[in-house]
Amino acid sequence: MKKEITPEALFAAYQNADEKDKEKFRELFNANRQLTEEDIKESLIKFLNGEDLPFDEKPFIDWVNKASVTVPPLPEPLDLKPRYVEGNGIYVPVVGKYLAMQDSFNGAEVNWDKAVKEGAPSRDEWYIILFFKDEINRLLRENGGEELDKWYWTSTEGSEYGAWVVRASSGYVGSYGKGVQGSVRAWAASK
């Protein structure tokens, strides 16, 4: 009997991959933008579950085969109820951490420095959040939160002057100047 690979297990597997493997994965993600986030997510989960896949998903299969990715033991089921985290507002549980129900700063856009201080997820964390965007948006909708549909700062610096951003609606990941005003969705560690 095959184990189902959960979002949490896939997230942990990606986090545990070395930087070279993560970079290869990011290249595949960017080269296959014609695939929807659901296509990519399903390809990886099916492969990690040992299922056969169509030939056109071979690049992702090759990446998983060559990467230093191991699937950890499945975690205990998460309590999916929103909760207050460290007194900073209401968050929903996502892949072992908590993501804010609403954009920070009452929806006002801020520069990169403020986004980092607020607790923006890293670029790698955003890659995994984007895989599961549909489920996350459903959870947010069901609990009165704002869906992920803007571009958001990551906490990952690109250079002295630039930092990485993601556009949740399209999956675009790129670099903007740190002074540009953008949205931030805070990220908090699970207790």
Write the SSE topology.
Blueprint: H1 7-16, H2 19-31, H3 37-48, H4 58-66, E1 83-84, E2 90-94, E3 97-100, H5 112-118, H6 123-131, H7 133-142, E4 151-157, E5 162-167, E6 172-177, E7 187-189
Antiparallel strand pairs: 1-2, 2-3, 3-7, 4-5, 5-6
Helix pairs in contact: 2-4
Summarize the entry for a quick read:
The chain has 191 residues and is α+β, with helices and mostly antiparallel strands. It is 37% helix and 17% strand. It starts with 6 loop residues before the first helix and ends with a strand.
Key structural traits:
191 residues; alpha+beta; Mannose-Binding Protein A, Chain A; 2 domains; 4-stranded antiparallel sheet; 3-stranded antiparallel sheet; 7 helices; 7 strands; 37% helix; globular
CATH class of the largest domain: Alpha Beta
Provide the domain count: 2
Whole-number mean pLDDT: 75
Query: Strand fraction band?
Result: 15-25%
The helix/strand class is alpha+beta
Polypeptide structure, described:
The chain has a four-stranded antiparallel sheet with strand order 1-2-3-7, with helices on one face. A three-stranded antiparallel sheet has the order 4-5-6, with helices on both faces. The protein has 191 residues and is of the alpha+beta class. The chain has two domains: 7-66, no CATH class; 83-189, Mannose-Binding Protein A, Chain A (Roll), CATH 3.10.100. The protein is built from seven helices and seven strands. The protein is globular and about 45 Å long.
